[in-house]
Amino acid sequence: MIAVGVLGPLLVQGPSGPVRVGSARQRRLLVALAAHAGRVVTSDALVELVWPEPPADPAGALQTNVSRLRRLLPPGSRIETAADGYRLVVDPGVLDVTAFADGLAAAAAAETAARPDRYARVLALWRGQPFVDLDHPSVEPEAARLAELHASATEQYAAALLAVGRAGEAVSTAEALVRGEPLREGAVALLARGLVAAGRQGAALAALAALRTRLAEELGLDPSAQLRELEGRILRQELDVAVAEPPPSPAARDRLPRLPVSSFVGRDAELAAVAELLDRCRVVTLCGPGGVGKTRLALHVAAGVADRYDDGVLLVELGDGGPADVEQILAGALRLADDGAGAVARGAGARAGPGVLADRVVDVLAVRRQLVLIDNCEHVADEVAGLVEAITRGAPGVDLLLTSREPVRADAEQLVPVAPLPPEAAAALLADRLGAAAAGTAEPGADDVVPELCRRLDGLPLALELAAARAAALGLRGLLEALEADETFDVLRGGRRAAAPRHRSLADVVAWSHGLLDDPQRTLFERLSAFAGPVDRGAITAVCGDAAPLPDLVERSLVVRVPGAPDRFGMLETLRAFGRSRLAGDPTAPALRARHAAWAVALVEEVAAARRGAGEPSAVRRFDRHLADVRRAHAWLCAHGPVDQLLRLTVPIGEMADVRGRIDLVRLVEDAVAAAGIPPPGSRPAAAHPLAPRLAAVLASSGWQRGDLDTADDWGRHAVVLAEAAGEPLAARFGYEALHNSASFRGDLDRSVDHAQKARDLARAAGDTVTEVVAQVDLVVVAGYAGRDTTQLEADLLAIDAPAPTSRAWAEYALGEVRAERGDAAAAGHLAVAVAAAEDADSGFVAGVARHTLLTSAARGGDPAASLAGFGPLLDHWNGFGAWTQLWIAVRALVGVLSRLGRHRDAAVLLGAMAASPRATSVFGADSARLDAVEDAARAALGPEYAVAAAEGARLGDRDAVALARRLTRT
Fold it and tell me: Residues 715-719: what's their mean pLDDT?
């Protein structure tokens, strides 16, 4: 057992655990002796090594410190007195330096299969820069020799992994070494071989090319002959490539949470225990202090049990939200849209009361078999408790896995305490985070934070992450003196595991780290906390000013770099919260928030412009990546203005709420309408903001999608009024488009055509091809429903230059819809193209209507039994949107399939439910004839029982009727 460690900060391990060597002089003395273990070090040399300035009585001072140090040494080690100095004598395996060298020799001689594990155990002894406690030139040669030995051992470890087919681990090991020593040819060669073995020949060639460039630029050299030969063999594909497993299907990927790629150690027992608990408990909460690893444990548990749940795992992250945001964040994760009971029906300025949105969440979850993982509950525990209880009562197939720093105290909650990592696991985690960076550090004493970290920080993973970051940047003396002077660190030692003390100490670590930054670094760190998520360097410059210190903050792990094109930079939640606490009293903070809001406005306007072209999919993904910051800016502008910026931010949000069916985005529109003072329907303002008509039309569209045609009419007409008041007559196109849909669903086709023509003509005059496409689609579809020739209308539609995927999807949908109505087999091709284009841009509403026609037309002309199962996902789609208009149309089509299967009683129940629902829109044209035929067949088959079944359906209500319809698709 290692009892004295100097491969990194000094470590002394006694029979009862770590031994604290509190005196800096005694630590330097022991390291000096260990650096010359087994050899006598003269008293004069020791005095020079231990004291920067010689004491008044050098011999006496040295003897006193040796005496005190002897009392601290563990068994198997002793200090002997020699004639002219002292000597450290250790038993085999007690000093990590000798154990390291002996272990490497044994690993090299081991069998091929056993070699990787042997090397791994030996490399775990390496905790950082050797002799880091002793900043003296005399030990630098030995430290350099050991560092080279460690690098060589790491190469041998990677080669051993590669030899037994563990290519992925070999690549990770070699990559870490190359990051520390980019010109190390042996490491680059191993990396290239590993990448080839992993099937990544392109990456292997890129690694070799990067080395060639760096050698030329920095040293004026070419790669060695061996490396050039290796590159040639790769180009000729002469190296063996491992057979990769087939990638999981998209469905399988969607059911699993994304796991962090960095190491996860020491939690096997907790993984098994929580998985077993979820087998018999509905609500499980992982409870422990901040930074203990609850989220990572929960993600791994969820990945392990995902196969138990037909609908997979839903991850809900509450870290950025407050008490008022809990329901909206969960709704956003579910991709819900509002329904007729939502705030749209209540008008602008009215926000959903407590429980309204929760009911929608429960409605959707009620038909699922799913695990919902809700992360970071402690700051909103009351709200989470109420929502959890509502879900457990109303959604019997849903289990909940929560993470929190305190119990949520919901009914049936089962607590699983998450303790800090045990010593071995903590050491492994720290070694993983420190390894290569510590070996490549040029600053003397940069690893100082490491001494006794596993004991001092009690194995708390986040604290270890922070300590690893500091090890690359801070001096030995300053770090140790700060830790020893901070009494709060004493409570983190073995046995004292109460959450509050650990949290305070972690906060002190952050504050101390913050204090060590210079002024430009500190300013940027605090200003970065204005962001809610990772952003690119351009955003940081626009909002925070000088971004020059950014690399320094990344190096200290105060900022996390997210690789990409471009790279993005973010903060851990704990660090962001600390930064915001510093900003709270800063008089410049309001100006910072205003710059953040202005940046967000520019961002969404760029997204809106890009959405009108072929780059729409990437624009939508960009919006989603920055949604947390868009929300933060929106909240600031609602409270502080200016109104113009608020509405410019909100219009693109509303446009995506419309085509994507996102209730969380509709809520932002409602808040903006209220904050901007846009008058409600029924008023006739003398003036209005030019963007007000667009937002009113979004609320109108939300109304008709949810089956509330009266609200849709009110807001649609009001959009026209606001356009007149704003002096922007062309903006009335948005209101007319919404009014068309409302009239269409009322069965008033003449009025719907009139509104669509006005919307099209105004859009054409405004040069708005996106709205022109939608209006022309309306005209094509209505003409098709009326049985009129659509040839010219279709030609006009295809002539519009609108390259965005959503616009293409609308056009293909229209072509498919009218052909399906005529029974033309070509319909399926158009509809399939529409679905693919819409899904590419995440335009869920458009994809839904195309998929609906694709399914229902196939059901009418094919085997009804084969099509039945397809209605389940369709119902789920519209139920998730809360789109009752489309939902009842889907139920209507399902009724026809049930009738063809001879299930007339089931059809009669659903017919009764439709007749009783205020949200089921009017039936006209061919649909009316088909529905009459279904009813006639049911009456003929059931006789008097038809009335009983229809009455049963009428009593169900919308929610239960949809649940019944979904069940009927499975039987």
Answer: 95
* 296 backbone dihedrals φ, ψ, rounded to 5°: -65, -40
At 557, the pLDDT band (50, 70, 90 cuts) reads low
How far apart CA 71 and CA 82 sit, in angstroms, is: 18
What is the C-alpha to C-alpha distance for residues 144 and 150, in angstroms, rounded to an integer? Answer: 10
- Please give the Cα distance from 697 to 682 (Å, whole number): 15
In DSSP terms, which residues pair with 287 in a beta bridge?
A: 404, 417
Angstrom distance (rounded) from CA 124 to CA 264: 15
pLDDT digits (tens, 9 = 90+) for 338-372: 444 343 333 434 444 445 778 888 988 888 889 99
What local confidence, expressed as pLDDT, does residue 76 receive? 87
Looking from the CA of 36 toward its CB, the CA atoms found within 13 Å total 20
Q: What is the pLDDT of residues 642-677, one digit of tens each?
A: 999 999 999 999 999 988 878 889 999 999 999 999
Q: Are 302 and 401 in contact (CB under 8 A)?
A: yes
> Within the chain, how many helices (H) and strands (E) appear?
47, 14
Fill in the amino acid letter for 966: R
618 contact partners, CB below 8 Å, separation of at least 6: 610
Whole-Å CA distances, 724 to 623, 691, 692, 720, 730: 31, 12, 11, 6, 9
Three-class SS of residue 4?
Answer: strand
Strands 535-536 and 370-375, how do they pair?
unpaired
Contact 291, 412 (CB under 8 A): no
Instruction: Output the pLDDT for position 251.
Output: 36
What b/e string do you get for 415-445 counting C-beta neighbours within 10 Å, with b at 16 or more?
bbebebbebebbbbbbbbbbbbbbbbbeebb
**Count of residues for the chain?**
971
User: Which class for 381: exposed (0-12), middle (13-18), buried (19 or more C-beta within 10 A)?
Assistant: buried
- Residue 512 pLDDT > 50: no
Q: Which residues pair with 561 in a beta bridge?
A: 569
Among 235-244, 466-475, 781-790, 903-912, the range of highest mean pLDDT: 903-912
Q: How far is CA 23 from CA 32, 63, 317, 449, 774, in A?
A: 14, 15, 45, 16, 77
C-alpha 573/C-alpha 556 separation (Å) is 16
Q: CA-CA distance, 546 to 533, in Å (whole number)?
A: 19
Structure-token match 């209220």, residue found: 674
Alpha-carbon span 548 to 558, nearest angstrom: 15
Per the CB < 8 A criterion, the answer to whether 839 and 848 are in contact is no
User: Alpha-carbon dihedral of residues 760, 764, 767, 773, nearest 10 degrees?
Assistant: 40
Q: Which phi and psi angles does 621 have, rounded to 5°? A: -65, -35
**Cross-strand pairs, 81:** 86
Query: What strands, in cross-sheet order, belong to the sheet with 17-18?
Result: 4-5, 11-14, 17-18
**Integer Cα distance of 770 and 608 in angstroms:** 11
Q: At what angle do helices 185-197 and 167-180 cross, to 10 degrees?
A: 150
Residue 592 host element (H or E): helix 589-610
- DSSP of 487-548: GGGGGGSTT---HHHHHHHHHHHHHHHHHTS-HHHHHHHHHHTT-SS-EEHHHHHHHHS--T
CA distance 903 to 923: 22
Q: How confident is the model over 36-92, as pLDDT tens digits? A: 888 898 998 888 888 888 888 888 888 888 888 888 888 889 999 988 899 999 888
User: How far, in Å, CA of 78 to CA of 155, rounded?
Assistant: 35
Residue-level pLDDT at 735: 95
- Tokens representing residue 695 in the block: 């937002």
The torsion angle over the Cα atoms of residues 655, 656, 657 and 658, rounded to 10 degrees, is 60
CB 875 within 8 A of CB 891: yes
According to DSSP, the β-strands at 413-417 and 535-536 are: unpaired
Are 150 and 45 in contact, with CB atoms under 8 Å apart?
no
Phi-psi region of 961 (alpha: psi -120 to 50; beta: other; left: phi over 0): alpha
C-alpha angle 656-771-716 in degrees, rounded to nearest 5: 80
